[in-house]
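dumping this here before i forget
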Amino acid sequence: MPARRCAAVALLLLAVAATARAQVDATKKLAWHTVEFAIVKFNDGPPISWNIYHSEKEKKGVLLVRLWKRYLLVNVQDQEVFDIDPQKIKVNGDAVEWSMADVPDKPIDAVDFTGRSVGTMERIRFRFGKDGHMLEIQIPFGINGRPLY
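structure:
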């Protein structure tokens, strides 16, 4: 009987440790690096200040877009866009640090979301609200013809 109790306590401790580790990993800030050769268009013209970042730890199709002083998290597969609090992002040269735990609960209203292959690029387009501004992101493909980010 004592051996069973020890085994049950050990399993319980392992489960608690695994849960705590998962919570620490979720709040850990990830390094997001600049997407090379990307293009951003805002209402069919280039914005004055912009950048696109990707994280090597996140799945492909999740991009962090800086548009002026605003940050947007774009999930291409789920066709969702989240408005990110700029105060939670730490800039380090060409890279930024940010945690996926800071994703808001609800995405912003992004309609007409489309993603398609355009030659050597993947083009992602969406509109902010029903009659809002249009944002277009172009991400280069790799040599194999698949998205790099």
